[in-house]
Amino acid sequence: MIIINIGDELLIGQVINSNAAFIAERMNSIGIPVEEAVVISDQEEAMKNNILEALGKTDLVLVTGGLGPTKDDRTKKVLCEIFGMSLKIDQPSLDRITAMFNRRGITLSENNRLQAELPDGADIIPNENGTAPGMWFEKDGKVLVSMPGVPFEMKAMMGDILPKIVERFHPDAAILHKVVQTSGIGESDLSDLLEDWETALPKEISLAYLPRPGIVRLRLTATGNDKTLLENLLQDEIRKLKKIAGQYIWSYEDNQLEDEIGKRLTKMKKTLTLAESCTGGYIAHRITSVPGSSNYFKGSIVSYSNEIKRNILNVREANLKKHGAVSEPVVSDMAINSMDLFDADFSIAVSGIAGPDGGTVDKPVGTVWIAVATPTRLYTEQFHFLAAGGRATIIERTAAAAMSMLLKIMING
Amino acid sequence: MIIINIGDELLIGQVINSNAAFIAERMNSIGIPVEEAVVISDQEEAMKNNILEALGKTDLVLVTGGLGPTKDDRTKKVLCEIFGMSLKIDQPSLDRITAMFNRRGITLSENNRLQAELPDGADIIPNENGTAPGMWFEKDGKVLVSMPGVPFEMKAMMGDILPKIVERFHPDAAILHKVVQTSGIGESDLSDLLEDWETALPKEISLAYLPRPGIVRLRLTATGNDKTLLENLLQDEIRKLKKIAGQYIWSYEDNQLEDEIGKRLTKMKKTLTLAESCTGGYIAHRITSVPGSSNYFKGSIVSYSNEIKRNILNVREANLKKHGAVSEPVVSDMAINSMDLFDADFSIAVSGIAGPDGGTVDKPVGTVWIAVATPTRLYTEQFHFLAAGGRATIIERTAAAAMSMLLKIMING
Q1: What gap in Å lies between CA B113 and CA B125, rounded to an integer?
Q2: In Å, how far is B248's CA from the nearest CA of chain A?
Q3: Least Cα separation, residue A315 to chain B (angstroms)
Q4: Which residue is closest to A23 within chain B, CA to CA?
Q5: ipTM of the complex
Q6: What part of B 122-161 touches A (C-beta under 8 Å)?
Q7: In this structure, how many other beta carbons lie within 10 angstroms of the beta carbon of residue A187?
Q8: B288-344, pLDDT tens digit by residue?
Q9: Is B11 helix (H, G, I), strand (E, B) or coil?
């Protein structure tokens, strides 16, 4: 399959093309490889040539963009030409758009009314989040689907389109996924550890390593015709995986660290606080990016100076003097005292050297101490992250290490 | 020009293609429009077809990726075929790679030695940050430049390549840029405000609106042959712009809000603290993403509950009860008391409803109060952000509004 993203904003570099990555990931998840991803301008000539070229090379083309109220004439005109259709008001789409405007108390403009003018032979895919519907074209065994370019509209629409694509291209297939997420072990060490298990996987199951900073996700894909059989196979393999690598696993879902933390804290009816030094508020930002996080996150301290560590977090002067800010005694004080100060059940404290300056021979840039305090115990660990990735990478990896440390303690005690 | 990014990791959606956006932005900055951006796999067939197709359509093709130690044979082989060259050890490249490995105390493997095997007719562009050099090919008036796919290696290399492209395609041109950044006014209102000025711009200067969440960047590009004349023209126009829209301007450089804040605080030898509610640590994260921020940022409080607002930030109970957490009196207390608590010269406080829950009829999702305390005054402002963009967008826009509010107070008093 080929992805075509239409949009001048992508060609002047104003916007990073996240749509292509999203679609590519979804396509791979249903076993359809992406051959090319092309970004083009919304000029008629470019659209027509590229779409025809893509349809000549492959059976499935997904197109995003070029459907805004000021631009859609051209895209729809080109698609009509290619598929031999003409534009006609689609009543369900017009009703939907009119209702959307009525709810907002805005009168429908002529431009917006034109968004319901759609190619008469295309299957219309409703857009629950915007005014431009999606369109499914089929001709000579080739399928082209046109979607809006606004990421959240496109992503929601992909939820409806994906099953249709599976039905059209793999009518008998059942495809199931399970994601298991690890931290504290690199991709190649994990792959060594899992070698025997991976080799013995049943033929229905394939494995993909999907690394992120500080994290390795494992995606198991089961393909076949019998859904129940596939579910059982997946469950068996996850059980085996847990025995081999359980100590590194922090989630059995395809979610983010902050989502898993939120899920577990909510279930346990427990609260969390943080005392962040080198991550400078980034962990708090991740935790509070989850809707409803105010139910379990009370707040936190960014203690970016020794003065604050002393005066607000009551870190003992003797510990600061003797061991320095980046040390086990200091993060321990930070974790325990922030837990008291915020009256929370769990606390994470981090102190490290994010660079580029501040490193010493004993404690080079990338040295980080993390402490996790629970209602019954205090856990501490030292990390050495590579300085080469720069400040942002050290912050990212420290956050991943700290949040997954909390989760692994919650899971394994 | 056409951009070709080679990489299977892009086609399975594991990595978002930020290289294309970076190159597109740089190309536009030197007045060379991007016609297409294509992502392909590192299979010989795909590479050869797409590169030939691109060279048939345009005069300049920039290629990234496909040069890793395990993959470069194929890419270089394809390029040799297309340009009629053969591979030969390039001694300066071999010396550079050997020295790089010696510094790290690693022995050069055969795979790495092969990275110095390069097409004998290409101009070699040294890679200061990795082992795969760049290559500049020229044939029949067409130019193709091959660069590594690792973003920071590619970005550094673009610094060397850009002047060569200007010299090759616009030999007599001087191209100068100035960026002016605004906030507190939308793109279309700003464009109305600037209409007369924009119409009267000298023919050497072109203007681009580059919006980001909560921010509109204005890029003035001056093109001509006389650099001094262009510099003077730009200065004149920036002066006029300042008169018309000065109240919205927070930077005269192409930097981030946190960079400009850091620059000004460092110059003033002043310190900053924050009291964040709805942004949940995101502003602290932005501030501390700047190297050296520990010189002016002491730390901050994320006060995600009323309890913390009361107990740690000493927000008056009467204000919380009478006006609610999202109110002018509460953010005022937060700003002033955090400034005292952290003994800082400036403080920003934010309190708002990031959603999706927590909105009321009086205070819908997107309602935000921001306070900025300076050594001499307290400033407050209410904002209403659209709920439609979701929680992440409200947090992003709140941070932009808060940081630019501080900057505009620093600049205009």
Answers
A1: 17
A2: 21
A3: 15
A4: B13
A5: 0.82
A6: 152
A7: 13
A8: 999 999 999 999 999 999 999 999 999 999 999 999 999 999 999 999 999 999 999
A9: helix
